[in-house]
Every structure is written in C-alpha cells, then in structure tokens.
Amino acid sequence: MALGEAVKNMQIILKNYVTGSPKETDFEMVPSSLKLKVPEGSRGVLVKNLYLSCDPYLRFSMSKPKTPSYSSDSKPGSFLA
C-alpha cells in the first residue's frame, strides 16, 4: 500500500438523537474514502478500527440537549468521533 493512497472506509453517522439506550437504527453506515497519510516528521501511526463501542458518556452527548452545554454535543448527520 503506497503512502497517501486513498482507501474505502465506512463512517458511522448519528441518524437520530438517542432516547434511552442507543439502538442500531439511531446510526447509519456511510461509505467514504480516506487518504492513508501520516504527516511528514510525525511519530503518528495509522490503525484499523474493528469495533465501535459507545461508552456511557457518549449516550449523553448523543441525546437532544435540554440546556446549553459546555461540551460539544453530537447532532444528527454528524460523524461520531
């Protein structure tokens, strides 16, 4: 695989605000492409993610905000990071 080569990727997108426990229907898998390039001089590495886990903190950030928050909440249509 050459440096900077574009590869196919799947992104998990938040489709709906989550109410209660997250369900598979709250998310959407969207195909995309990604360039495999680590910045020159960087000591970074590229890794392949095999599983996605939503910890309890993410549940609150995926819920519809009731009041303004100091943290950035996820909105439907956004990439889960």
- Unreliable segments of 5+ consecutive residues: none
Portion in helices:
under 10%
What global shape is seen?
elongated
Largest sheet, in brief, is: 2 strands, antiparallel
What is the averaged pLDDT score?
77
Which structural class do you get from the secondary structure elements?
mainly beta
**End-to-end C-alpha gap:** 26 Å
Rg to the nearest angstrom? 16 Å
Count of β-strands = 2
Strand numbers in spatial order across the main sheet: 1-2
Order of helix and strand elements from N to C terminus: EEH
Number of helices: 1
Oligomer: single chain
Strand content: 15-25%
Which key phrases capture this entry?
81 residues, mainly beta, 1 helix, 2 strands, 7% helix
Overview of the structural elements:
- The protein is mainly β and 81 residues long.
- The protein has a domain at 6-35 and 49-63 and 74-81.
- 7% of the residues lie in helices and 22% in strands.
- It has a two-stranded antiparallel sheet.
- It starts with 5 loop residues before the first strand and ends in a 20-residue tail after the last helix.
- One of its GO terms (molecular function) is oxidoreductase activity, acting on the CH-CH group of donors, NAD or NADP as acceptor.
